[in-house]
Amino acid sequence: MQHTTKIINCSVVGLLTCMLWSTAPAAAETQTIDGITLVKIAPGCFQMGRDVDFKESGRNELPRHKVCITKAFYLGETEVTQTQWVKVMGNNPSKYKVLNNPVESVNWNEVQEFISKLNAKTGTQHFRLPTEAEWEYAARAGSTGVYSFGDDPKKLSQYAWFGNEGYHGKSSPVAEKQPNPWGLYDMHGNVWEWVQDWYGENTYANSPENDPQGPETGKYKVSRGGSWVASAFNTRSAVRFTGMPAQRSSDIGFRLVWQP
Length: 260
Description:
This protein is α+β, with helices and mostly antiparallel strands. 15% of the residues lie in helices and 24% in strands. A hairpin with a 2-residue loop joins strand 3 (30-33) and strand 4 (36-41).
């Protein structure tokens, strides 16, 4: 998993201030916990929200705003698979039961139960869902384009199972497409990924610069990344989708954070 990319390093003196561009390590730093491989994501700053001059997207991607992630975290190299879910929960709720495919048909509340049991099983309290800001930061992987690899949707099939390019009536095995520059697979497509945040109409307008967490309460939870039924348009890094915490679908799953 060799990769190089540009990220913004930040130093903390009072408020976090972005200082300079630097080159990421040639190989991603990973660790595997209970069969789940996670990639270390360094702190940094980025522009979150609708890409410049991309006029067709929804208002919920506005305003574009600066966000800084002040602490390193580990993010799942892939979406949580059915094998990993069964190992913790003892059942497989997925509509399309293929063990190396992402677990799907799980709602946000059930994901919280999985995380609670995984933390108990591993003797830590370090697993959780990513915040929406952490997710987009990792999805962009230092890029400023519509996708982690740039702006050309013709290249998307190299990185994502989506719509007409990867559609065969269900999700696909994880890590079969190319990873993004930070070594993360299927950040575009395959299944939508639940994140921790509640959805708020004015979240972006009122978001703090450092480590935003989203609203304290709400009606809908956010999912990101698009899926095997999504168009190329809906697999962009900036796209936000919402659903009730009890909602489940055969194209919604999740990816984990492990916070040291």
